Amino acid sequence: MTIIDRLGDDVAVLEMDNEELVEVPRDKLPERACEGDVLVNSGSSWLVDTEATAKRRAAIKSRIKRLLSRND
Length: 72
What we know:
Elements: E1 2-7, E2 11-15, E3 21-25, E4 38-41, E5 46-48, H1 50-68
């Protein structure tokens, strides 16, 4: 799974499957791509995997909710 770690004006930093951070030109990503989006490589550019992104965001929300509701 490749995730957008952060976005700059000209460069995006992607976290690859092996946790390596890789810089790619921002113009290789979809215009509306956001930090945290899951990406799929389509050869010369990247596409946002909207289903995987939604699942990942829901899982993160669930984890945060569980952590905040702990009665330790």
